[in-house]
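Now for our specimen.

. . .
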Amino acid sequence: MKWVWTMTTVDRNDLRFIRAMLLLTMAGLLLFGITAVPLVSGTAWLVSVTSDLGSPIAQWAQRVHEAVTDVDDHYPFLFYGTDWLAFAHVVIALAFVGPYRDPCRNRWVIVWGIWMCVLVLPMAFLWAPVRGIPFFWRCVDGAFGVVGMVPLWLALRRVDRFRTSSQ
């Protein structure tokens, strides 16, 4: 028997919860993606926020800000790559519109999102050392994958609950 789930079989409270988790995911993607555009002012803000947190973090933030400022002064075209990074975040966020509209039919997008969150970890911990990223910042990057996975996993559990109850 082929399993088919339509919007009429969805409990409205669960549907609201699933949609809330998907909106949270999309908002996070948009928010953190957009931060890739204003790099000079963003890293200046990071320096001001981290100056009281401790030496390694503050030193790293200052170093990053100096590098970003130097690139902006001499090679601003390099930031075009981070503009595309921001664009990619927007596009990925839009991928969750399908599951928002029909979570069961588009369950695969939620699973795909979870896999993308899992893959943040090897990216942060295997590739970042090649670029000289300090360990504490790799943990920050890895946390985005772990934290991003939580609402997707919660949404997937609700979708799968319908899958088993509808069979």
Remarks:
- The chain has one domain: 7-165.
- The helical segments are 12-34, 39-50, 55-74, 80-95, 97-101, 107-127, 135-165.
- The chain has seven helices and no strands.
- Residues 7-165 form one domain.
